[in-house]
Amino acid sequence: SYNGERCSMNAVQQEVINKWTCEVKRDSLTVASLVEKIDKGYKREPSGIILDPIYQREYKFTGKKESSIIESLILNIPIPVIYLSQDIEQDIIVFNMIDGMHRCKSLPIIA
Q: Which of 13, 15, 24, 103 could bridge across to 9 with cysteines, CB 3.0–4.6 Å?
C-alpha cells in the first residue's frame, strides 16, 4: 500500500506494463494491399490480418450497408478507420482486427 513513500516496481510488474503498452501508428492501405493482408491472415502467414479473432461479434451488415462501403471506395471516399492489434504471442506476428471487420468483410472479394 502507498503511505507517502515512493513506490518501486519489480521486474514482473514492469514486464506486465511493457507487454500491454499501446503504440498507435497511422497507415494508409490500398484496397488491394488490405485484401492481400487479410488473405495472409486466413492462411495465418506473417503480417496477415485476422478478421475474426475470438472476441469479434457476428457479421450483421445488410446488402445496403455493404453497398455503401463499396460505393465509398469507388467514389474515393475514405472509409472509417480500421483498428488492429499486433499479436506477438504466436509463432508468427499477425494483426488482429479490433474494429473494422464489417467494413472489410463487405468487400465481395473477402466475404
A: 13
